[in-house]
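note to self — DONT lose this again. spent like an hour looking for the file last time. sequence + predicted structure for the chain T wanted, 368 res
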Amino acid sequence: MLYEILKEHDAQFYIQHSGDNNFYYATKFRIPNSAFYIIGIDGTDLLVVPEMEKNRASRESRVKEIASFTDLGYHERLKELKDSRKALAQTLIELLKTHKAKKILIPPNFPSFLTLDFLEHFEVEVVENPFLKMRAVKSGEEIEKIRDTSVAIIESFKLALELLKKGIRDCDELRNEIEMFLFGRGYLAQDTIVSSGKLSADPHCIGYGEIREHVVIDVFPKSRRHHYYSDFTRTVILDDCPEIEDMLDAVIEAQQKAISMVREGVTARDVHYMVCDVLEERGYHTIRKKYREGFIHSTGHGVGLDIHEEPRIFENEDALKAGMVFTVEPGLYYKKWGGVRVEDVVVVRRNGCEVLTEFPRKIDLRRV
């Protein structure tokens, strides 16, 4: 795919910098320092790292060739220029010139100081990061990593239910228990949503204070070992509120119907509009009709090395492909009553889909 993009843009090189998960996806190397992955139409497959990281990169990275900034003369240029940014730019420029570069491609978030120096020597074009589309379809190994995180989420949610049954009624306390449980098992959860009452009408409010008639619990950790996320939400009924319960029943129906149509070849728009159809038929507002209450967000988002990535399940015409992993998470939000949401992570298969976060959708603790 990368060579096709280079040919399409008549360019010789694509450069990916460290600092986001596209670099890790491309190289299988995680690094806190500045580093660059350079792919060339001439077969160049080069990872440039600090000297202190070279041996580790040789062991851990999937890239064919490893070079350090020392190998490329960075430190000599630094002594001469006395400017680390200029020295870095000159080092990369000389490397590219050695490979007869005339045009290079960079992603939108490429460091601007390097781009400005590159423009004095090459034609530079900003392109959509090619790794984003590549990451949308997961390998079997990636799916198993997301499944692993999903199992941990379900266990943390079972703990949350037990604590609710024991009488915990504080959002912060419950959130802390969920996050500490996950951390102790090798997962990092931050800003876990435990939101109750009218605050839950704001989909991304993490919640605070007393848990009342219902609580929305949205858990989305990543593994500290393999770095893959999963995502899961349930709305728990704790006391009588007919409006909330009716909203929850509608959301569960919408989610089930949307999941039932997920398979290779179906468009993201079809899945999103199924959710809108069900909720509108039951008398609720949706984003499709430009309402600001009701169902006010997309149906889902990809999950992987980032909690939000491709594909987006909204009004786009993107066709689903086998191996895509994303959430299906309809919700309803009204300031008068609060909000509800039900969310699962699914894997697209050729003739259907697999739910990685399988768990009962209607949870009512009033009679427990």
